[in-house]
Design brief:
Elements lengths: L4 H14 L13 E3 L15 H18 L3 E3 L3 E2 L4 H10 L3 H19 L9 E2 L3 H15 L1 E4 L4 E4 H11 L16 H6 L2 H9 L4 E11 L4 E3 L4 E2 L2 E2 L7 E10 L5 H7 L7 H11 L5 E6 L5 E6 L16
Parallel strand pairs: 1-2, 3-4
Antiparallel strand pairs: 5-6, 7-8, 7-11, 9-10, 12-13
Length: 317
């Protein structure tokens, strides 16, 4: 007897939907478990084979934990905000809100046809103002905070400003470095822009210059995985390396905590090494050099023992 999956599964999927079989209630009597997939970008092409490749594994694990008595939260959402949606709208001449809504409906139908155990009442869309208002809120918390080297955690930038106003920023030992150290009087004499530039060097979310993948046709920066053989993955437009001012997050301030955290997780050695390389902590020494005109130049080196026999420095601007 042949299994008529089209008829049988369609009937069962209707029963699951009508009975809210996968709806997750806030049941505090059960232990909690959270299984989160990477949200797909809802393209006009629909699902590709790579989507269910990962989603099937997490679906199996979610069902397993649910049968073990856990209250499992296994949501699904759509990474619908950004360049792909904008570019698709330009290519088709349609408003991105309309194309995104249509594409999400297609994705949800395809995901339901596979039979995943998603609670769609908890669906997330990154293009929803109720979602991205929180990403904006998080950015503001980072922008208005700095990493306190004494407490080893984030503190309000207002505390740092107050410290600069009353004590300045002078080294405990050694000579002050121009551009890095200053007295309270010097800080209070700084212009608004000079103060803003100093604070930008301490904020957790900060502006800086860096080399990026620039696509002139798309008018935006692309990640490395969005560039294939020198052209954009979407549209095949030329991509060049360019130095631009952009936003960064000061992850390096948390390097020690991130590395220590790797000792608390049950990851493979290969995975831990990959994460360690991504964190990219680098140790070295900072030295102060005097020029013939008595100007101070601050340099850093991973091998400080190599500095003693240096007789000349070359600088590129």
């Amino acid at each position: 007897m042949e299994y008529d999956f089209r008829r049988i599964e369609k009937d069962w999927q209707k029963k699951w939907k009508d009975s809210n079989a996968y709806k997750v209630e806030n049941d505090f009597s059960k232990p909690k478990y959270y299984v989160l997939d990477m949200f797909p970008y809802p393209s006009g092409a629909g699902l590709h084979v790579g989507h269910p490749l990962g989603y099937i594994a997490s679906d199996i694990f979610s069902r397993y934990k649910r049968l073990k008595g856990f209250n499992v939260l296994h949501p699904m959402g759509f990474d619908s905000f950004g360049l792909p949606a904008e570019q698709y709208a330009l290519d088709t001449g349609q408003h991105p809100a309309e194309t995104t809504k249509k594409n999400i409906a297609t994705f949800k139908a395809q995901l339901d046809n596979i039979g995943f155990c998603y609670d769609w009442s908890r669906e997330v869309q990154t293009s929803d103002p109720n979602y991205y208002k929180w990403t904006q809120w998080i950015f503001l918390q980072l922008f208005n905070s700095y990493f306190c080297n004494t407490e080893k955690k984030a503190r309000p930038i207002s505390e740092l400003i107050k410290k600069y106003e009353t004590k300045g920023a002078m080294p405990k030992n050694g000579q002050p470095i121009p551009g890095k150290h200053f007295t309270a009087a010097e800080w209070n004499a700084f212009s608004e822009k000079e103060q803003a530039d100093v604070l930008m060097k301490r904020r957790l979310a900060f502006c800086g210059y860096g080399e990026v993948n620039w696509c002139e046709a798309l008018g935006t920066v692309l990640a490395n995985d969005e560039v294939v053989n020198g052209v954009s993955e979407r549209g095949g437009h030329p991509v060049v390396k360019k130095t631009l001012r952009q936003w960064y997050l000061r992850i390096t301030a948390y390097a020690d905590r991130l590395l220590e955290g790797l000792n608390t997780v049950d990851f493979s050695d290969a995975m831990k090494e990959m994460q360690s390389n991504w964190i990219g902590k680098s140790s070295g020494a900072e030295s102060l050099r005097l020029t013939e005109t008595d100007k101070r130049i601050s340099t850093s080196n991973k091998l400080p023992t190599c500095l003693y026999n240096k007789t000349r420095y070359n600088f590129w601007c």
